[in-house]
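Before surveying the methods themselves, it helps to consider a single example record, giving the amino acid sequence and backbone structure tokens:
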Amino acid sequence: MLKHIVMWKLKDQAEGGDKATNARKMKELLDGCKNLVPGILKFEAALAQPGLEATYDVVLYSEFESQAALDAYQDHPDHIAIKPFIGAVREARQCMDYLA
């Protein structure tokens, strides 16, 4: 199994929305990707919660049965279609893939 974790810190203002608005939209876009390809075992997008420690605004925790499944997800047209919005609203991005 391959775990794929991505965290984004968002800009205060971008694409006509504030950070909270863009975070909610980003979560909706990511949630729409959870069943794109076979081999996705777990796919959870979450927003930073007020009152809990967080240095990033949005996180994606996902598990794939193989590198091929992750590659298929990365190359899927619906996943590629959300990248311009995410790129426009993010200030920073961190990613880690690892075998479990």
